[in-house]
Structures are given as structure tokens and as C-alpha cells.
Amino acid sequence: MSLKDSQLNMYEHSEVKVQLLKLYLERYLNILNLSPYTSDLNIYDLFCSEGVYDNGGKGSPICILETIKPIFVDNLLKGKTGRFNCLFNDNDAAKVAKLQATVNQMELNRLQTGGPRYENKEYKNILTEVVGEINQFQSQKAFIFIDPYGYKDISVQDIKKLLKSKKTEVLLFLPTQFMFRFEKNGTPQCLKDFIAELLPETEWPTSSTGLDFIENLKDAFRKNVGNDFFVDSFVITRDKNQFFCLFFFTSHIYGFDRMLDSKWQIDEEEGRGWSYEGDSLFNQVVKTANTVKFERNLISFLKAGERTNSDIYVFTLHQGHLTKHTNQILSKLQDENRLIVLQKDGKMARKGSFYINYKDHKNSPDKVKFKIK
Prior knowledge:
Elements: H1 5-8, H2 12-34, E1 41-45, H3 60-78, E2 84-89, H4 93-105, E3 117-119, H5 123-134, E4 141-146, H6 156-163, E5 168-174, H7 176-184, H8 189-198, H9 210-225, E6 230-237, E7 243-250, H10 253-266, E8 273-275, H11 292-303, E9 307-308, H12 309-318, H13 323-335, E10 339-343, H14 358-363, E11 368-372
Parallel strand pairs: 1-2, 1-4, 2-3, 4-5, 6-8
Antiparallel strand pairs: 5-7, 6-7, 9-11, 10-11
């Protein structure tokens, strides 16, 4: 069977998908690498494809190995012993063979990382093995990238199994445009089964647009996986009204923080996703974050009662925003004499001292309290 052009050549929207993967790995792997509680880092690419496309575009496995390389070299210089273990799987043996040859040619196989390992197995089979490995981890962590050829093999239960140990981050790509189209016209059984895992079909909300479908899917994911996990989405707009999406799952609040930071690196105005602008992957024009809606929500959150710095940090992440956006809004409220910030002893905090960050969330969750006038 002949391959689709999208499987032979890397389109710009696919490049964005890999760029988000790279941005996140650069941030979070460095953080995990510094943790005294984490030994090996394990990265799984379950639909790895051949690594380099016919038009020269670099796929996810090459991106992963190239991102790891400088971190590994830095580890050697610092005498660190933690390893990066990579597993690349695809059910197409020819793609796996081509990937392995490319990795060897690019000399990315020379990293003493405990890998890469290569497998040629069906998704459900490799998933069972990966879940088994992860459930045995003590001080190890895992990152799983799932970029399927469609969605018929993907199950919500798969994600929950991977997350169960709370040692895993999952980045899942779904062709939501096709799913939305089928939701409206002639829903196939595989989509009915997928939705039924999330909530009863009668409770599935109507999606007027492809973006509505993504929001409905994200909300359903959040409710299904529970409060112990964070879920967010990154929308990729290929053409007008054609939306695809990456969904990120984690139990680690700082991992979620770093993914949001990666999203806003790409979309400086909305932090929602990417759309083709016709000139370049990343427009060079300086853009300002749109925080109007977030400001309204934050003020409402503050009006509802006294809040700690930890409360506001968690609220900020659930709103899909960065702490710098929160600090800007709080500074504005303070300048307008609408905000009171108190220390533990009840005294006024120094102006601009908000402590909205992961470190203070973890170590000093009630360092200051906020009241709005």
C-alpha cells in the first residue's frame, strides 16, 4: 500500500508538533536531571516512524536524541551517572530499520545513554510492555510521546494506565479535525468507543466548530483522569478551520508549568497553539500576551475569598497562563490600590512580593495572602 505524502514528507504543522516536543524536553529534562530524587530518565516514542523525512524534515526520534545530547555531555563534565534511556517503536519494520541507520549515520547512537532501543511491535503490545516497565520504577521517570497514524488504536484507558504510577508525562497527538468531522457526519464505531470511555454518549456536548470539539475533549479528559492530574492542549491549525491537537497529561505540577512555558514560546499572544502565517514558522514580530479574560477570571477568583500564593499559582496553571502574566496583573491591581498582600505575621508585604512560582508553592505555600478591595 502506498504511503500518504504526509508520511513521506514533513509538513509545517508537523514541524510545529516536533518543535513543541523539543521545547518541552529542553526545559523539563534539565529540571529532572538536577533532581537528587531522580535517577534515569526514560523516553518512549511509540509511533516513531523513520526519523528523517524524504524532504529532510527531522521527526520526533531525531529531535529527542538531539535534545538529549547536550544534556548528556554536560552530565559527563559534571560526573553525573543518570542515564537517558530511549525506546523507539513502530509497527513498520522498514521505518524502524531506516531510523536505526539514520541514528547511526548521525552518530547519535554513540551517547552512553542506555539506548536507544528499537522495537517493531503493534501499539497495544508495546504499550503493555511500557506500562509494565514504568510500574517497576522507583526513582526513574518516564516521558511518552504518542503520535499515532490515526486514532482507532488509542484508548483513554491507555493514558490512565501510563499515568497511574505518577512517574510519567504523556504527550498525545490526535487528528481532532477528522474526529470532529466524523462526530458531525456518520460517526464511526472507533470514535463512538473513544467518546464512550470519557462519558456517556448522551452527555457529549455539541461541537459547533473544530475548536469546540477540542475544548470538549480536553474537559472530558480532565474529568476522566481526575484531580490528581493536569491536562492541557496545544492546537495546531493547518489550514482555515482545520485543527489538530496535542494533549499533555501529567501528575507533576512543575512538568505542567514547563509545558505551558513551551506553548507560550510558540504562541506569545494566546498560549493556545500555532497557525500557518505564510512567511515563517515563528513570526519575528514582537507580540504581547492577551490576558484580558485571564485578568477577569483572576479578579473573580480573588473576590471569592482570601488566597495564598500557592492558591494563585495553581489557579494560574489551570487557566493555561504563565506566572509572569499573573505578576503583571497583580502589580497593576497593586498600583491601582485594589490589592492587599499580607505576610504571615499580618504585616503588609513589600510591594511586588507575590511569590507566585513553583519553588514557593512547594516550600512556602502560604508565604503571603491576597485580598482584593
